[in-house]
Amino acid sequence: MNFVCLKWGNKYSSEFVNKLHNMLLRFYPSAELHCMTEDPTGIQDRINIIPLPDDNLEKWWWKMYLFNEEWMALDNACFLDLDLVIQDRFKISIGDKPTLLRTDWIDTKEMWKGINEYSHKIYDYCEINSSILTWNKYTNRQLIWNHFAEHREKVLFLFKGIDNYLNHALKDSYDFLPPIAHSYWTTGETWSDKPVILFDYNEEKQDKVDIEQVNRLWK
Questions:
Q1: Which residue ranges make up each domain of the chain?
Q2: 141, 135 contact by CB (below 8 A)
Q3: Cα–Cα distance measured from residue 73 to residue 75, given in angstroms and rounded to the nearest whole number
C-alpha cells in the first residue's frame, strides 16, 4: 500500500509529514509515504517527494490532482490529511470508485433544516470527508478530474472545498470507507475504538492538544 499526503504553504510544517510516516510505520512496517509538496525542506529523506505541478491552486484544492490518473500514477494508494493521528491499523476497501469517509459524527440532515436550494449555505455542509481517500488501478478517478478541469472556474467559485464539490456535483462518483475515523473537535473525545482521529474543523491541530493519548501517538 502506498500512502500519500499533501503539504502546501506554511499551515503545516515538515514535522507533520515526518510524524505521519512514524505513525504509519508502527502499524504498516513496509509503508511508503509520498508527499505532494512545493517545499520539501525538513522532510526526511525516507519520504518520497512528489513535486506539485505548475498550477495556481491553493489549500485543499491541490487534492484534486489525486484524481488525475496520468499525474498521480500510484496504484493501491491511501491519501491521508496531515491533521490526524493514527491509533491502530485500519482496513480499507477499494473498488471501481474512489472511497472516502462518511461524516457519521455529525447529523447533516439536522444541519440542513431550514436551508433551501438557493441559499449559499447549501454548500456549507456535506456527508463526506476526504481526510482519508483510497483507490487502486481499477478505480475510475479520471471522471472526477475531467469534470473539474472542464468546470474549474465555476467549481472554485461555488464550493468551499473538494468535499462539498464532490458531494453536491458528483455524488455518484465515489463510495464510502468503513467507519474508521472520528473528528475530535466535533465531540471533544478521542474515541479509542476508532483507528484514526481527525483534527479538522478547527485551527488547532494535534500538536496543540495536550492529551496523553494524543501525545503518545503523535511522535
A1: 2-217
A2: yes
A3: 6
Contact call for residues 82 and 20 (beta carbons, < 8 A): yes
Write the CATH number of the domain with boundaries 2-217: 3.90.550.10
Other CB atoms closer than 10 Å to residue 26's CB: what's the count? Answer: 13
Q: What is the percentage of the chain residues whose pLDDT exceeds 70?
A: 91
Q: How many CA atoms lie within 13 A of 92 on its CB side?
A: 28
CA angle 134, 176, 189 (to 5 degrees): 95
Determine if residue 59 is left, alpha or beta; phi over 0 gives left, psi from -120 to 50 gives alpha, anything else beta: left
Tell whether the model's pLDDT for residue 112 goes beyond 50: no
Model confidence over 41-92: pLDDT tens digits? Answer: 999 999 999 999 999 999 999 999 999 999 999 988 999 999 999 999 998 8
The amino acid at residue 197 is I
Pairing mode, strands 181-183 and 77-80 = unpaired
Which grid cell sits at 180?
A: 474508521
Q: What is the mean pLDDT of residues 133-150?
A: 96
Q: Taking Cα atoms as reference points, which of 195, 197, 189, 201 lies closest to residue 163?
A: 201
Whether this prediction's pTM lies above 0.85 is answered by yes
- Cα pseudo-dihedral 201, 10, 37, 65, rounded to 10: 40
- The answer to whether 62 and 32 have CB atoms below 8 angstroms apart is no
